[in-house]
Write a structure and sequence with these properties.
CATH superfamily of the largest domain: Spore Coat Polysaccharide Biosynthesis Protein SpsA, Chain A
Helix content: 40-55%
Strand content: 15-25%
Number of domains: 2
Number of helices: 14
CATH topology of the largest domain: Spore Coat Polysaccharide Biosynthesis Protein SpsA, Chain A
Oligomer: single chain
CATH class of the largest domain: Alpha Beta
Number of strands: 9
Length: 316
Amino acid sequence: MDNSTVAATAGTADVCVVIPTRNRPDLVLRAVSSALAQRLSPAEVLVVVDGPDEATETALAGVDDPRLRVLPLPRSGGAAGARNAGVRATGREWIAFLDDDDEWSVDKLERQFRHVRENGVEGPVVYATGVEWRTDDFTFHYPRRSPRPGERVADYLFVRAHPGEGMLAVPTLLLRRELALAHPIPEHLRTHEEYDWFLDLDRNGCSFSVALEPLTTVHAPAVRSSVSTDAGWQSSLAWALARRAELGERAFSSFCLTDVARSARRAGGPRLFAAVLGMAVTARPLPRDVARFLVIWFVPQELRWRLSNRRRRRVA
């Protein structure tokens, strides 16, 4: 990689921050503020309003900064469609994604571009950072490790020895616009479009590089409505079954016993318990994956968080 292409000029990077939003004017202002406040200034912050939303457009009109641009869409197409529209609408060399309910530390872009310069490899690359995941009661830092050389992205994300070991959070991502144009985020899926996108990128020779420092804050309150959280376990399982060959048996079973299980647990019942476990067993999961499934199903989420947080403090 030619490192001169990622060098900042006069404290500004040729990057467009794409923020999709709808009906959350207060939250998106926080996200926009964190993007505009970067020590390494983005050349453009592009808020894509996903469908008619007068309140959000009015709130953003009050931001007096020439770097901010608002792109209202005539109809809602979901977060993936809004992100893709933002990629098409800018001419900047780099794209950085940020969600409207999340925020960056002030040195996120500066440190991430330093990581790009120090870890550049041949071929297309998606760069990510660590995440500070904030719930109502706890704060966690993910992921625990970066992808290993040659590791399939499905194995990095789902074949875990520990919770949160591998993660690629969309509001941390940085990639070249030409890569985002060549491989847009799937817009037809109701859930897991980002996983589908990662599999597509991996299949086409893209690698993933993660700076573990938590430079992005993801807010995850207990009451949180989004497309992904509302889609239901059926959609998660249907996605996994459709992508089983690309996931591989280990990643498929792990996904069923964690991601599908977390969603299915809310519906509950012995039949559903047996169905999820039975589907995963067809891929011969490891005992640790089954044990994690049992914990997810029978131990309340708040207690799991408390135990995990206590264990992290002991390790630290």
